[in-house]
Amino acid sequence: MFTTLIDTDLLLNGRENPDWLIFDTRYDLADKNAGKEAYLQGHIPGAIYVDLHNDLSRPPATNKGRHPLPTVDTMNTLFSELGIQSESQVIIYDSAFGAFAARLWWMLRHMQHENVAVLDGGWQSWLAAAGPVCSNNEARSESTFNNLATEQDVIAIEQVQEVGLLVDSREPARFAGESEPIDNAAGHIPGAINRFWKNNLSENGCFKENQTLRQEFEEIWGNTPAAESVFYCGSGVTACHNLLAAVHAGFDLPKLYAGSWSEWSSNTEKPVATGS
Question: Is the dihedral of CA 256, 260, 263, 268 positive or negative?
Fold first, then answer.
């Protein structure tokens, strides 16, 4: 059972297991069609395409962020459409160092499906290992997925200022308010600290070693239990990369503020802080 990451060699050896489901979540925030086009040009054989905008942010949603988290019923519908069953080993990849794959990883964990892992190094690692590639538009095969959500691992905008430790996953310039290319205001939620999600990665685009990640997250948390910390980003997507890294390092799953900065900054009544 793989519950956080899987490497290319293991996927190469096990991908024909009938209980393994592979999902391609490549996406481009600047061009919402680019991920599907890349998938149709070539993907891991058997992989099914899952779209950030049309699948992982479906209405009805729980928040008003840019990529709003679907409701429990909507996620059960989606995962049924994707053919996920209780015994399924789900494996997810993208071409963005796990930034989008981690969103689907977290959603499945949120819905209490633990057999889910992100391909470490993603599409680039697959190509570097000379893994087979095909261009078929793989059809979805439906199942019945009807799980309950883990309610305590996600918080709403009303709860944000009550948390003990709030961590912003965006790049430092956006956190500090020096630039804001997407959302309504520049800066961060007052009281938050910054842990850029790309700090989870080594120079080769794979996740850092467990012990390195563990030491870095321990420095962030101090005396706060991992499960009591809350992560956010621009729209509730790349924050999941930090959550994946934390669990991979051996910690309990932290919480997610799914609405994130896109929801917070669109509410003129909410305070904004700047600086590092």
Answer: positive
In the predicted model, is pLDDT for residue 276 greater than 90?
no
C-beta separation of 48 from 24 below 8 A: yes
Rounded Cα–Cα distance for residues 173 and 150 (Å): 33
* d(C-alpha 43, C-alpha 18), whole Å: 18
Catalytic residue among 134, 206, 233, 240: 233
Q: Running DSSP on this structure, what letter comes out for residue 24?
A: E
For residue 265, the surrounding DSSP H or E stretch is helix 260-265
206 is catalytic: no
pLDDT tens-place string over residues 126-138: 999 999 999 999 9
From CA 161, how far away is CA 192, in angstroms rounded?
10
Domains in the chain and their CATH numbers? 5-149 (3.40.250.10), 152-265 (3.40.250.10)
Cα separation of 258 and 181, whole Å?
A: 20
Cis peptide before 181 (omega within 30 of 0): no
State the pLDDT at residue 217.
98
